[in-house]
Design goal:
mainly beta, 7-stranded mixed beta sheet, elongated
Length: 119
């Protein structure tokens, strides 16, 4: 499975931004997709996840009400709509996918996309 993120950039506080993640390769068996982020000097943290079948979502408390994750199973894409951005949202955002194939779980990561929010 290959994951490619797009949509990062430099925005001002209060702006919105949309990130996309496209999955390719052997995508059958992907159970969950999501977004993590890592700010300089900090650990990578969960932002949001979405179950591929059913669409149940989960969000970090810090982004609830501001970010929305969605998926398009037909095109194997996932989108993160980010609103009311603050400088604290500045980080590299990574797409990930959890696949279970023959009972074996595997996790895949994208290369990351930079989001910078200026005050």
């Amino acid at each position: 499975v290959q994951l490619v993120e797009s949509g990062g950039g430099l925005v001002q506080a209060g702006d919105s931004l949309r990130l996309s993640c496209a999955a390719s390769g052997s995508t059958n068996g992907i159970r969950t997709m999501g977004w993590y982020r890592q700010a300089p000097g900090k650990k990578r943290e969960l932002v949001a996840t979405i179950i591929r079948l059913g669409g149940a979502t989960n969000y970090a408390d810090s982004v609830k009400g501001r970010f929305t994750v969605s998926r398009d199973n037909t095109n194997d894409t996932m989108t993160l709509h980010m609103g009311s951005l603050t400088p604290e949202d500045t980080a590299v955002y990574y797409c990930y996918a959890l696949q279970i194939d023959d009972g074996v779980p595997r996790t895949y990561w994208g290369q990351g996309t930079q989001v910078t929010v200026s005050s």
